[in-house]
Every structure is written in structure tokens, then in C-alpha cells.
């Protein structure tokens, strides 16, 4: 028996893949119950509360917005810790801070169950195609039990050891790098456009040569084309991640001036009403600074 909580852009396709893997029955819960419809149609059971999703000794996946949501779903009156019990495993796939993860891991341990950190790289289309890259950390026994399932849900699993915070640090480091790359791309694109050169052509060239990697290819092309849709990762969640990066950096006395800059770009995006846009639209900031009104801003 598996449980799955959080059926947003990422959770829904992952839960569908889990269900379709035929590894066992799946019970699901989402704050907004209607989002479970597709899963119920395919045979999942709807649970009225997070606790009801958890079977004693079972495996529960969570894929929720932020630290607060994960804490609510785990520790609340109807939280999964009420039922998970000895040998139970909570696979926590959300992007949250390492300090929260370590605290949760301790609380799980007190109840003889395990918290496994399993945050992911890849957008909703990658989740649907089982192409996620999954960072993993936590207790060895729980990892051995869950790893084959994670391998089914993604294209690779990277083990960062026993510290429940470690996989989350790895994930945050990656999202910081993506944010910094997008800011750099945005600035380069503005330079090119204001110099009268074709921005799409320049980014196409760079993404096919020196910067031939998914971040430059996908986000680079989206930024050059001012492509605001589809929204894979909301700007509001990107801001949350950069705040988490800075908190984690502060905890280990590591100045990250570039993370500060990217966080401020995202914060400015929120202030301008762009919370629901894709986070690549932080690029509008560099354009606006240079007096450009790009297509995406004209559509607002
Ligand atoms: P999303 O579409 O906004 O979904 C968020 C989920 O969290 C929904 O199920 C939502 O329930 C639930 N939720 C939020 N606050 C809650 C609360 N207080 N109590 C209970 N449930 C709550 O977000 P997403 O894009 O799937 O992202 C989920 C996680 O994956 C985030 O940590 C994100 O940073 C990470 N991530 C996202 C991507 C991406 O490309 N989207 C990639 C990698 C990692 P409702 O449906 O009721 O709102």
C-alpha cells in the first residue's frame, strides 16, 4: 500500500506513474480534493485526511509547495505521523530547507519510522515521462526499500548519504545554479537585442555549442523567445527556493551575493504580480532595467 499527498503540477504525474507501475494500491490525498479525479478514475482511493493516506508500516510520498505545507501534512492533528508507525517510510519529494528536513527526520525517528529526503530535478513534463533526476538521503534501510520505486519514477537517483538535510542541500544548490543561469541569459539577451542583433539566433547558437546543456537549451530558448507559457515552475515557488538557499547559506556562514540578486529579481516579479508565471520570467527584470518592454510583459 502506497500513500501520496500533494497532487499539484508535479505530484499528479508522479502519483499517476506510481499507480500505473502496478506495485500496489495507492491512496491519495490533496487539500483540493478535485485534483485527485484522474487518479481515482484509474483506481486510486481518495483519503479524506493525510493520516488516512498512511498505512502503518507503509510508504507515503509527499510533493507539496513548501516547508509549511510539509509540516502541516506531517505534524498536524490529522498528519501522517499519527499513523505511519514502526517501519513506515515518508518519502519527501518537495523542495524544502535542510533544517526542516533534519527536524522532521528526528520526529520520524522518535516514532520508529523514517524520513527520506527525495527532492527532484525536472519539470512536470519530465515527471510525466519518468525522466526526473532524484536526490536521495536518509536511513539506509528505508533507502533500500524505496530506491527501486524511485528508479521507476525517474531516470536517475543520486544518494547523498544518511543526513536527511543533504539531498535538500543538493537540490537547493541546483536551483540556485538554474536561477543564476537564467539571470545571466536574461542579461545577455538584452545586450544582444539592444545592439540590434537577433536574440533568438544568438541563444540558439550558444545553446547548440558552448552551453549545450538542458538549462541553456530549455530556459535559454524560452527567455530568448519571451515564452511565458507553459508554466512549469511558478515564479512564487522559485522565490521560495532562493529564500531557502539563502537560509541554508546563512546557517553555514556562506555569503552568496549572486543568490541575493536572483532572489531580488524573483521578489520584484512577485511585487509586479507575476507569482503564477513561470520562474524563467524573472528575465523580465533585466529587460525592464534596460528600458525594453518584451513580448511577455506586453501580454500582462
Ligand atoms: P503546485 O502545482 O503549486 O502544487 C503544490 C501542492 O501543494 C498542491 O497539491 C497543493 O494543494 C499543496 N499544498 C500547498 N500548500 C498546502 C498546505 N498548506 N497544506 C496542504 N497542501 C498544500 O507545485 P508543484 O510545481 O507541484 O511543486 C511541488 C514541489 O515540487 C515544490 O516544493 C516545488 O518547489 C518542487 N518542484 C517543482 C518543480 C516544477 O517544475 N514544478 C520541479 C522540481 C521541484 P492544492 O492543490 O490544494 O493547492
Morphology call: elongated
CATH topology of the largest domain: Rossmann fold
Question: How many β-strand stretches?
Answer: 9
Sheet of most strands: 6 strands, parallel
Specify the structural class.
Answer: alpha/beta
If strands are numbered along the chain, what order do they take across the biggest sheet? 3-2-1-4-5-6
Please tell me the CATH architecture of the largest domain by its name. 3-Layer(aba) Sandwich
| Gap between N and C termini | 45 Å
Q: Which small-molecule ligands are present, each listed once? A: NADP nicotinamide-adenine-dinucleotide phosphate
The CATH first-level class of the largest domain comes to Alpha Beta
Keywords:
300 residues; alpha/beta; Rossmann fold; 2 domains
What does this structure look like?
The chain is of the alpha/beta class and 300 residues long. It contains 14 helices and nine strands. Helix 5 (98-110) links the parallel strand 5 (89-92) and strand 6 (114-117). Helix 8 (166-194) runs parallel beside helix 13 (283-289). The radius of gyration is 20 Å and the shape is elongated. The termini are far apart. The mean pLDDT is 96. Bound molecules: NADP nicotinamide-adenine-dinucleotide phosphate.
Can you summarize this structure?
With 300 residues, the protein is an alpha/beta fold. The protein has helices spanning 11-20, 37-41, 50-53, 67-75, 98-110, 124-128, 140-153, 166-194, 199-208, 214-224, 235-251, 257-271, 283-289, 295-299; strands at 2-5, 26-29, 45-46, 59-62, 89-92, 114-117, 120-121, 132-136, 154-159. It folds into 2 domains: 2-163, NAD(P)-binding Rossmann-like Domain (Rossmann fold); 169-299, Orthogonal Bundle (N-(1-d-carboxylethyl)-l-norvaline Dehydrogenase, domain 2), CATH 1.10.1040.10.
